[in-house]
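Renewal narrative, Specific Aim 1. Our central claim is that a sequence can be written position by position from structural information alone. The example that follows is taken directly from our test logs and has not been curated for this report. It begins with the structure tokens describing the chain, in the order in which they were read.
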């Protein structure tokens, strides 16, 4: 669980659940889905990432990485989406989104988190987002001044100004994604959900990755189990309201 003491003290007065999120953010998608699956009331604080509404002193005072999502639960600030959904299921346990094998389920959450910066972000930015959210010199200077996370500074530095992601960056990201989705394909053989017959946080953690990556042109032609698994989400309210309501088609972003 990642809890932050904010420098923007205004959020410490919040009552109930408040979510700072982005419509097109796969990390935000999994938190919205969890809140809906749990039937929890929450107040939306939407930030338009394409307008760079997250790059402000006010928001960096809430989340020091300037990333979405951020959950504020009765004034306590939580960051990192997979930690947030684990926290929500632990704090608001009914209905439970735990699998019988909680250790294996958590391994899937940790894997999704581990590949975010080295694979998911480079693939998404290289194929779709970098050109759409190009920063002006002033915006880049603002971001560099606010951002203290070196990994994120290094990542965004690769497409700053006239720079673009290298072929090696893209190939590395694609290889990591291919290996992880191959693992998922094998795991789903004979299973309805990642953990078997029970829908869990593991599924919530991974379906936004699929949704965003397929929207960026990643081919799942050779992943029939993943396609079957993804199709099963269409009937779930959490998928309709947590993903499609905010981002009907990532390929059109």
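The sequence written for that structure reads:
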């Amino acid at each position: 669980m990642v809890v932050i003491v904010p420098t923007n003290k205004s959020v410490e007065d919040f009552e109930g659940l408040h979510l700072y999120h982005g419509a097109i953010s796969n990390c935000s998608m999994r938190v919205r889905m969890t809140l809906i699956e749990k039937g929890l009331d929450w107040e939306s604080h939407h930030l338009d990432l394409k307008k760079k509404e997250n790059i402000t002193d006010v928001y960096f005072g809430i989340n020091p990485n300037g990333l979405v999502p951020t959950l504020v639960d009765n004034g306590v600030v939580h960051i990192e989406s997979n930690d947030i959904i684990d926290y929500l299921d632990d704090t608001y346990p009914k209905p439970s989104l735990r699998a019988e094998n909680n250790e294996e389920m958590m391994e899937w959450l940790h894997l999704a988190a581990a590949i975010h910066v080295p694979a998911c972000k480079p693939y998404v930015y290289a194929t779709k987002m970098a050109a759409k959210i190009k920063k002006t010199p002033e915006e880049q200077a603002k971001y560099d001044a606010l951002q203290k996370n070196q990994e994120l500074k290094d990542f965004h530095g690769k497409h700053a100004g006239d720079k673009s992601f290298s072929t090696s960056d893209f190939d590395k990201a694609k290889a990591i994604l291919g290996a992880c989705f191959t693992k998922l394909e094998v795991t789903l053989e004979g299973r309805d959900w990642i953990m078997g017959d029970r829908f869990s946080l593991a599924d919530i953690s991974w379906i936004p990755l699929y949704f965003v990556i397929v929207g960026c042109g990643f081919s799942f032609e050779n992943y029939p189990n993943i396609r079957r698994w993804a199709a099963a989400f269409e009937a779930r309210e959490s998928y309709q309201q947590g993903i499609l309501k905010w981002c009907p088609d990532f390929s059109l972003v």
